[in-house]
Design a protein that fits this description.
Helix 5 (108-114) crosses helix 9 (229-238). Helices cover 32% and strands 26% of the residues. It is globular, with a radius of gyration of 18 Å. The protein is of the alpha/beta class and 276 residues long. The two termini are 36 Å apart. A hairpin with a 2-residue loop joins strand 9 (170-178) and strand 10. The chain has a five-stranded mixed beta barrel with strand order 8-11-9-10-12. The protein has a single domain, classed as Spore Coat Polysaccharide Biosynthesis Protein SpsA, Chain A (Alpha-Beta Complex). It has helices at residues 35-45, 60-65, 70-76, 86-94, 108-114, 116-119, 140-151, 212-217, 229-238, 257-272; strands at residues 4-8, 29-30, 33-34, 50-55, 96-101, 124-127, 131-134, 154-160, 170-178, 181-189, 200-208, 242-246, 250-253. The structure holds 1-O-phosphono-alpha-D-glucopyranose.
């Protein structure tokens, strides 16, 4: 059983400056809900009720968001506004949150390794909250947990992207096992189009087996001088133990202004307006 989900949230969000100068990028709202809450809801819906944040300086608003605000509760108690807190109260009551801090920004691999003491020796999910995923039935993490239960190995979520965008992603090469599922044979972090092994890009959802921590420790600095999770997962893939899964649903790159606006419009039309 997968019980834990790790959220690396220490990044700066420079593309959204000045909005992210004193506010975590993960707290930017898509309509009326912070990005990170969508990710936590997806993890919890998949049964991952232990949520670990790898945070950094300036990210305290995230911990405050997933905690009771007594003043606010007092203020709106008994009014019609209480309905706005139902979702977040539900998370606060049912999820076990833990936090650790990444002191230096040494890459996504390093961020995940920083979470090791809170994850321990078990397989776990990773959600990059910038990638907002909306699916009809099971969320993307839920779809991946089902696959994990069947195959018991690390799994990365992928989607096809245009060739001129492969340089923004980790890109895989794989042997097709069945519809939507590949056995990974190679992975490259942010390749130039001409060096990309395919146009199958990794998006921000992973299930990782705990041997990943030793692999990260053995991973030298890669692209941008950072410890890349892609390089560590490649070591697992070389042992024949990584799947790539073309998920069902839509994904918005909310780390970019265009993706953020697209997600906002989509959620306004399909979730917010539909529910009001
Ligand atoms: C990270 C990973 C990359 C992956 C991407 C998905 O990159 O390093 O392999 O494709 O997330 O969003 P980042 O976007 O943090 O630069």
């Amino acid at each position: 059983m997968i019980r834990k989900c790790l959220f690396p949230v220490a990044g700066y969000g420079t593309r959204f400056l000045p909005a992210t100068k004193s506010m975590p990028k993960e707290m930017l709202p898509i309509v009326n809900k912070p990005l990170v809450q969508y990710g936590v809801e997806e993890a919890v819906a998949a049964g991952l009720e232990n949520v670990t944040f790898v945070t950094g300086r300036g990210k305290r608003a995230i911990a405050d968001h997933f905690d009771i605000s007594y003043e606010l509760e007092h203020q709106i108690s008994g009014t019609s506004k209480e309905q706005y807190l139902v979702g977040i109260r539900n998370l606060i009551n049912n999820v076990n949150f833990s936090y650790t801090r990444q002191n230096n920004m040494l890459g996504l691999g390093h961020a995940i390794l920083t979470g090791e003491p809170l994850i321990g020796d078990e397989a776990f999910g990773v959600v990059l909250a910038d990638d907002l995923c909306i699916a009809e039935d099971d969320g993307v993490m839920g779809q991946m947990v089902k696959l994990y239960n069947q195959f018991r190995c690390s799994i990365v979520a992928i989607e096809e992207v245009p060739t001129d965008e492969v340089h923004k992603y980790g890109v895989i090469a794989g042997e097709k096992m069945m519809d939507d599922l590949y056995k990974v044979t190679d992975m490259v972090e942010k390749p130039e189009a001409k060096d990309a092994p395919s146009n199958l890009a990794i998006i921000g959802r992973y299930i990782l087996t705990p041997d990943i921590f030793d692999k990260i420790r053995n991973t030298p600095e890669g692209r941008n001088g950072e410890v890349q999770i892609t390089d560590a997962i490649l070591q697992q893939a070389k042992e024949g133990r990584v799947l790539a899964y073309k998920f069902k649903g839509r994904r918005f790159d909310c780390g970019s202004v265009d993706g953020f606006v697209e997600a906002t419009n989509y959620c306004y039309e399909n979730i917010y307006k539909a529910g009001n």
